[in-house]
Amino acid sequence: MQAYRSRFLKEFDHVIIQWSSPYRFDYLTKQGWTFPDGNIKISLENKHIWKKIKTWYNDNFELEKTLNYMKAVDDLIENKVFLSMTDLPYENILLNNLQSKYKGNYKLDNYVDPHPSVRQHIAIALHVANELNLKVDEEKQLKALKLDSYIQKKQVFREYEFEHAK
């Protein structure tokens, strides 16, 4: 949106927008961002926040707000592709419910992360590139596959160093 506001986008640019769940709660505080652990109702790290807001929190409002944001972006930006991690009722989403279609398996501190893996992100990128009549650089694909193999072998994601993927 900063690129749009600054008129940095050109008519030949393509913008890929990935929407998270409308029920995700990432909030900037004086101490920094809240812990990004997804849906506020089932958050482990942010359960203290949920206790404070659950009396006024409204799922329908959060969904409607997200759909309004999507409609605004859809109207503002001509060449765009919408991707969504969760199932959203918006007709212009190219790949909806990525978290179910591309279920990840990286182990993060004794927790299996369901977000798409690096290998699955390549598949998503290839799908989007095909829709836009673009090509994904083969060298970058190989580099990403090597990184995915490294992560799968080590079964930790937070501790990897990108240098290992070279």
Tell me what the structure shows.
- The chain has 166 residues and is of the alpha/beta class.
- The protein has two domains: 1-101, no CATH class; 103-166, no CATH class.
- Helices cover 39% and strands 14% of the residues.
- It is built from six helices and seven strands, in the order H-E-E-E-H-H-E-E-H-E-E-H-H.
- It has a three-stranded parallel sheet with strand order 1-4-5, with no helix packed on it. Strands 2-3 form a two-stranded antiparallel sheet. The chain has a two-stranded antiparallel sheet with strand order 6-7.
- The longest helix is centred in the middle third of the chain and has 18 residues, at 59-76.
- Mean pLDDT is 86; it is low at 160-165.
Topology (elements, then pairings):
Layout: H1 2-5, E1 15-19, E2 28-29, E3 32-33, H2 47-53, H3 59-76, E4 80-84, E5 93-95, H4 98-101, E6 106-108, E7 111-113, H5 118-131, H6 138-154
Features:
166 residues, alpha/beta, 2 domains, 3-stranded parallel β-sheet, two-stranded antiparallel ribbon, 7 strands, 14% strand, globular, disordered C terminus
Q: Tell how many strands the DSSP assignment holds.
A: 7
Number of helices: 6
Indicate the low-confidence ranges by residue numbers. 160-165
What is the first-to-last residue Cα distance? Answer: 32 Å
Question: Overall 3D geometry?
Answer: globular
Q: Trace the largest sheet across and list its strands.
A: 1-4-5
Total of domains: 2
β-strand percent reads 5-15%
Q: What class, by secondary structure content?
A: alpha/beta
Query: Taking Cα atoms only, what radius of gyration do you get, to the nearest Å?
Result: 18 Å
The arrangement of helices and strands along the chain is HEEEHHEEHEEHH
Mean pLDDT: 86
Secondary structure: helix percent: 25-40%
Main sheet record: 3 strands, parallel
